[in-house]
Protein backbone atom coordinates (compact mmCIF):
# COMPACT_ATOMS: atom_id res chain seq x y z
CA UNK A 1 0.00 0.00 0.00
CA UNK A 2 1.18 3.55 -0.58
CA UNK A 3 0.25 7.10 0.32
CA UNK A 4 0.19 9.79 -2.33
CA UNK A 5 1.79 13.05 -1.20
CA UNK A 6 2.87 16.30 -2.79
CA UNK A 7 5.31 17.82 -0.31
CA UNK A 8 8.43 19.82 -1.05
CA UNK A 9 11.73 18.25 0.00
CA UNK A 10 15.37 19.26 0.03
CA UNK A 11 17.57 16.63 -1.62
CA UNK A 12 21.32 16.12 -1.48
CA UNK A 13 22.44 15.51 -5.06
CA UNK A 14 25.47 13.59 -6.32
CA UNK A 15 27.77 14.95 -9.03
CA UNK A 16 25.77 12.77 -11.45
CA UNK A 17 22.50 14.49 -10.54
CA UNK A 18 21.05 11.61 -8.52
CA UNK A 19 19.63 12.05 -5.01
CA UNK A 20 21.76 10.66 -2.19
CA UNK A 21 19.55 11.84 0.71
CA UNK A 22 16.57 14.11 1.32
CA UNK A 23 15.07 16.12 4.15
CA UNK A 24 11.36 15.87 4.87
CA UNK A 25 9.45 17.16 7.90
CA UNK A 26 12.65 17.92 9.77
CA UNK A 27 14.25 14.50 9.25
CA UNK A 28 17.07 13.61 6.85
CA UNK A 29 16.72 10.28 5.06
CA UNK A 30 19.89 8.85 3.50
CA UNK A 31 19.28 6.87 0.30
CA UNK A 32 20.74 3.36 0.30
CA UNK A 33 19.41 2.38 -3.14
CA UNK A 34 17.72 3.89 -6.17
CA UNK A 35 15.31 1.09 -7.01
CA UNK A 36 13.81 2.63 -10.14
CA UNK A 37 14.08 5.76 -12.28
CA UNK A 38 11.86 7.09 -15.06
CA UNK A 39 10.98 10.33 -16.83
CA UNK A 40 7.62 11.64 -17.93
CA UNK A 41 7.15 14.44 -20.43
CA UNK A 42 4.31 16.80 -19.58
CA UNK A 43 1.68 18.19 -21.91
CA UNK A 44 3.63 20.18 -24.46
CA UNK A 45 0.61 22.37 -25.28
CA UNK A 46 0.50 23.47 -21.64
CA UNK A 47 4.28 24.10 -21.52
CA UNK A 48 4.75 21.35 -18.96
CA UNK A 49 8.32 20.14 -18.78
CA UNK A 50 9.92 16.82 -17.98
CA UNK A 51 9.55 15.26 -14.56
CA UNK A 52 12.01 12.73 -13.22
CA UNK A 53 10.93 10.11 -10.73
CA UNK A 54 13.10 8.07 -8.37
CA UNK A 55 11.86 5.17 -6.28
CA UNK A 56 14.36 4.96 -3.43
CA UNK A 57 15.01 2.83 -0.36
CA UNK A 58 16.55 4.08 2.88
CA UNK A 59 18.95 1.99 4.99
CA UNK A 60 16.07 1.03 7.32
CA UNK A 61 13.99 -0.33 4.40
CA UNK A 62 11.53 2.53 3.90
CA UNK A 63 10.54 3.18 0.28
CA UNK A 64 9.78 6.63 -1.11
CA UNK A 65 9.05 8.07 -4.53
CA UNK A 66 10.79 11.37 -5.24
CA UNK A 67 9.82 13.68 -8.09
CA UNK A 68 12.00 16.33 -9.70
CA UNK A 69 10.52 19.06 -11.86
CA UNK A 70 13.59 19.22 -14.08
CA UNK A 71 13.12 22.66 -15.66
CA UNK A 72 12.94 24.50 -12.35
CA UNK A 73 14.80 22.12 -10.02
CA UNK A 74 11.93 21.65 -7.58
CA UNK A 75 11.81 18.34 -5.71
CA UNK A 76 8.77 16.74 -4.09
CA UNK A 77 8.02 13.64 -2.12
CA UNK A 78 5.23 12.16 -4.20
CA UNK A 79 4.67 8.78 -2.52
CA UNK A 80 5.46 6.81 0.62
CA UNK A 81 5.21 3.03 0.25
CA UNK A 82 4.11 1.03 3.30
What does this structure look like?
With 82 residues, the chain is mainly β. It has one domain. Helix content is 0%, strand content 65%. A hairpin with a 5-residue loop joins strand 6 and strand 7. The chain starts with a strand and ends with a strand. The mean pLDDT is 92.
**How many discrete domains?**
1
Number of strands: 8
Beta-strand percent range: over 45%
Write the H/E string, N to C. Answer: EEEEEEEE
* Class of secondary structure makeup: mainly beta
What kind of assembly state do the chains in view correspond to? single chain
Report strand order across the widest sheet: 1-8-7-6-5
Tally of alpha and pi helices: 0
Distance between the termini: 5 Å
Mean pLDDT across residues: 92
The low-confidence parts are none
The helix content, as a percent range, equals: under 10%
CA-based shape: globular
Largest sheet: 5 strands, antiparallel
Radius of gyration: 13 Å
Amino acid sequence: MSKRLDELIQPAISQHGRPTAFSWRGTTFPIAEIMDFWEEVGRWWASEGTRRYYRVRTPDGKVFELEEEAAIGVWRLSRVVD
